[in-house]
Design a protein that fits this description.
The complex is a heterodimer.
Chain A lengths: L1 H16 L11 H21 L4 H25 L2 H28 L2
Chain B lengths: L3 H21 L4 H9 L10 H69 L5 H12 L5 E11 L26 H13 L4 E4 L2 E2 L6 E4 L2 E4 L2 E3 L3 E6 L2 H10 L1 H13 L2 E12 L23
Antiparallel strand pairs in B: 1-7, 1-8, 2-3, 2-7, 4-5, 5-6
Classes of the chains: A mainly alpha, B alpha+beta.
């Protein structure tokens, strides 16, 4: 409950402040978004499984974003930024799909 | 021979397991580990709720920032485009205004000159002939109209340009060379004054190709190219019809599907060109006419 409220509060904050994303941060935005979605779905699934842990949730979210950004940063420096961000999106995308499927099974038993 | 095979199997097994792990263990293993570690009787720790709230706040904020960022980019690009279009339109209006003012001033100049110079006589005739040859007076007379047109399949998006224009894309078949060859053929056939899409040609006119448009004296024009030549209509028609240029474009009509036609007419009227003021060439002091026509 408090998580959903905080999510809504974050959305409202973003809508109110409408921050501009600095140019150097722009390439990492899509990766950060995918990492954030992964954290959300993982958290929801863990909650449904009854093994949710706040520390794991926060740490996994932050470390996912940081590691993903680091990979893209390194890739950009080595000339394979596009490919590496694709790899990150694919891996996190598979996880999101898997978690979404697990949530669906648990909620609808289908 | 027996040892390599198992290693290959093992290796492919490892990579397969990696993929299977990727697909099957979608949940962060940390959750399970934390659940095992935790003492079931301990209950919730105090920092849990604020931590979760902070994380969710951050996630929501990030998602909406990404959303805003993505959607702000597109209208921004459109805005820049609109602004550029507006500036181009304004510049075109400015050029049109200047052109009409120029025509006005030219008319007044001609009127004043008519007042101060003798209306008839050798001098007036000479001036008139020179002006006509220089394309500085609007002329009417019989002549020939040649029309060249891009195939209809060319791009359909209309872009700002001089009247009745479409952009010439990379697929265009007709270029400055075609317009120029027709113009040269018409001069050769005895035309006395020529205008291309309403732009009068002068002795210093250039027909060029820049970017995606044919430029006639720096005026961009696009298909259809209408080349009007004043002269003896019959002679022009006959000579042009027999020329190599005409037969080339007749061929292109059937091969590439361009539009090509020419019709004689009794009454063509060509506009005057903006006068070009010579900046470097000055008449020789002793006005000796040697070798003139």
């Amino acid at each position: 409950m408090i998580a959903a409220l905080a999510l809504v509060a974050g959305v409202v904050l973003g809508l109110v402040f409408r921050p501009t994303v600095p140019n150097w941060l722009e390439p990492y935005l899509p990766i950060a978004v995918v990492a954030a979605l992964d954290a959300v779905f993982g958290g929801v699934r863990a909650r449904l499984d009854g093994i949710f842990d706040a520390k794991v949730f926060v740490v996994s979210f932050i470390s996912n974003v940081v590691v993903a950004a680091l990979i893209v940063f390194l890739g950009d420096k080595l000339g394979v930024g596009g490919q590496l961000s694709t790899a990150v999106v694919v891996v996190l995308g598979i996880r999101i799909f898997g978690n979404a499927a697990a949530i669906r099974r648990r909620l609808f038993r289908a | 021979m027996s040892s390599p095979k198992p290693t290959v199997d093992e290796r492919s097994l490892v990579s397969a397991r990696l993929l299977i792990d990727l697909v099957n263990t979608t949940l962060d293993p940390g959750y399970a580990a934390a659940a095992q570690r935790r003492d079931p009787s301990a209950g919730r720790r105090r920092y849990e709720k604020p931590a979760v709230a902070l994380g969710c706040l951050l996630i929501g904020f990030m998602l909406v920032v990404a959303y805003i960022h993505t959607n702000r980019g597109a209208p921004e690009a459109a805005k820049v485009h609109d602004r550029l279009v507006a500036r181009v339109r304004a510049a075109q209006h400015g050029a049109d205004d200047l052109a009409s003012r120029l025509a006005d001033l030219e008319g007044r100049l001609a009127a004043l000159r008519g007042q101060s110079l003798p209306q008839s006589g050798a001098l007036a005739q000479q001036l008139q002939r020179a002006q006509l040859a220089a394309g500085q007076t609007a002329v009417t007379g019989p002549g020939l109209t040649v029309t060249l047109q891009e195939p209809a399949a060319a791009s359909a998006s209309a872009v700002a340009g001089r009247g009745g224009t479409t952009p010439i894309e990379a697929t265009n078949i007709l270029t400055d060379r075609d317009v120029r060859s027709v113009v040269n053929e018409l001069w050769h056939d005895g035309a006395e004054a020529i205008a291309v899409n309403g732009v009068r040609l002068t002795p210093t006119s250039a027909i060029r190709f820049a970017g995606q448009a044919v430029l006639v004296d720096f005026e961009p024009i696009t298909s259809p190219y209408e080349i009007e030549a004043v002269g003896n209509a019959d002679d022009l028609s006959v000579a042009f019809a027999q020329s190599a240029v005409a037969s080339r474009y007749q061929t292109l009509v059937s091969v590439d599907g361009i539009g090509f036609s020419f019709t004689g007419s009794d009454h063509l009227s060509l506009p005057a060109s903006a006068p070009t003021v010579p900046r470097y060439a000055v008449p020789r002091p002793t006005a000796s006419r040697t070798g003139g026509r």
